Amino acid sequence: MSDGKRLIVIGMDGLDWSVVDVLMEQGKLPHFGEAITAGASWVLRSTTPPVTPAAWSTLFSGVPPREHGVFDFTAREAGRYRFRLCSATDRQAEMIWTLASERGRRVVVLNVPMTYPATPVNGIMVSGMDAPDLPGAVSPRAALATVLARSPCYTVDAMSHWFAERKVFFTNLWKMHRARHRLAMSLVEKADPELFICVYVIADRVQHVAWRDPPTEEVTTAYEALDAVLGDYLDRLRPEDELLLISDHGFQRLEAEICLNKVLSDAGLLVLDRSRCRTLLAKVRQRWVHTRSVAERPDGWWSLPPRALWFDAVDWPRTRCVAFGLYGNLVINLRGRDPQGVVDQRRESASLLGDVEDLVSSILGERGEIRVHPIAWDHGSQRRISPPDAVVEMAGYRVATWGGREFYAPAIVGANAEGHTGVHSPEGVCLAVGPAFGSGSGRRGQADALDIAPTILELLGLTQRRALPGRLLMGR
Ligand SMILES: [Zn+2]
User: 152-208 pLDDT, tens per residue?
Assistant: First the structure.
């Protein structure tokens, strides 16, 4: 791609077709209507699990989570019984902006989750939600002045659990959104990018706390704001430009949270050393108070202490399986691989996963379905973090593994502690407008998160360094 042609990629975290369709029918999203008619659209199958860091990592690398290694906000440290927050430095994949930069394309990358610390690109990168502060989130460092000059109120994010009051959360969320879009508009016009990427997060943030069917006023307002965002890009689109709009997952009603580690511990698959639990109790109480106090600070989320503490109480030589992460990652304590492993991979792994599936299935009963997906990965490969051995998929449910409190939870199934009403669904949105895509047939096909990176590289005229598994969207 050259001669001033631009590829504009708009990410809308958590954007869901069901809401788009309802609001479009009410005439509330004119620009979505315009784009769907002018271009092509797909239901975009997310990653398993459909969680933000895993999905964006796949969307912009073209490889599945078992290769790039990011399955959730937390990960297991390779070869150890430790779980911690993960970051872009843990990811094992070449991102499209790195390849595009190396081949001399001018690049702008704004607010993509899991891009902290910001990496050098041929242009500018401002990291997304996992960045603890703005200075470390901007590459090159000197561009921080540009960011603040063009959008003085720019902040990395605004999450509901940072704020004690819902009203204050929404005020900060809108302020953050307006500042983000202001910077994006300035860069798309003045930085002359050949590849422009910006991720907007209001749909995700609002749907977590205000999801209902039909859409609530808060959700409607967020979608109308995103429609205005899309309109601003469509206004600036030149005839030769291409535009892709993608979401990393959709949304659905949150039925309940399940304390997966309590399920495992009640079944004897996870064993706690009670003596260590007692000595830990004081520490834990202290840690919990600390967590609550930092959580109320606007900069608090990323300064939370590592969530490894509770796993210190696990009696590993008697434990077969543990869960971590928000969407049910399972680690099997494998003999030969793990320091105190007890499970024989060849003879016992599959039946162990079958037991977990049966256990959760009997708890959910009529209320929901569960599937346990084994994750095949190379145990011998050099990694800082290890993929889980399986991922639990439960439509409408989220796993309560927050800080490990679930080991002692009074009930296995409960409401979300933060009052969330929405949870990720595996089906996101993909829309494309531009000469490569033709105009809308009204048909909405199926696409996969793996398809996005190869499509972007093709549109930029770049050859992949190695074959990616996804299929091009052009002509589909
Ligand atoms: Zn997301």
Answer: 999 999 988 788 889 999 999 999 999 999 999 999 999 889 999 999 999 999 999
- pLDDT 10s digits, 196-249: 999 999 999 999 999 999 999 999 999 999 999 999 999 999 999 999 999 999
350: CA distance to ligand 1 center in Å?
Answer: 30
What letter does residue 140 receive in the DSSP assignment?
Answer: S
Report how far ligand 1's centroid is from the alpha carbon of 13 (Å).
Answer: 5
How much distance in Å is there from the Cα of 355 to the middle of ligand 1?
Answer: 30
Domain 7-60+95-254+423-459 classification at class level:
alpha beta
Backbone angles phi, psi at 115, to 5 degrees: -125, 20
Measured in angstroms, how far is the CA atom of residue 209 from the centroid of ligand 1? 14
User: How many of the other CB atoms lie within 10 Å of CB of 469?
Assistant: 13
Tokens 């009696």 locate to 315
Ligand 1 mean position, distance from CA 286 (Å)? 31
Instruction: Tell the burial category of 108 from Cβ atoms under 10 Å away from its Cβ (0-12, 13-18, 19+).
Output: buried
Going from the Cα of 370 to the center of ligand 1, the distance in angstroms, rounded, reads 21
pTM of the model: 0.93
Distance 249 CA to ligand 1 centre (A): 6
Q: How many angstroms is it from 61 CA to the middle of ligand 1?
A: 16
Q: What is the DSSP letter of 416?
A: -
Domain residue extents for the chain: 7-60+95-254+423-459, 256-415
Average pLDDT over residues 411-437: 90
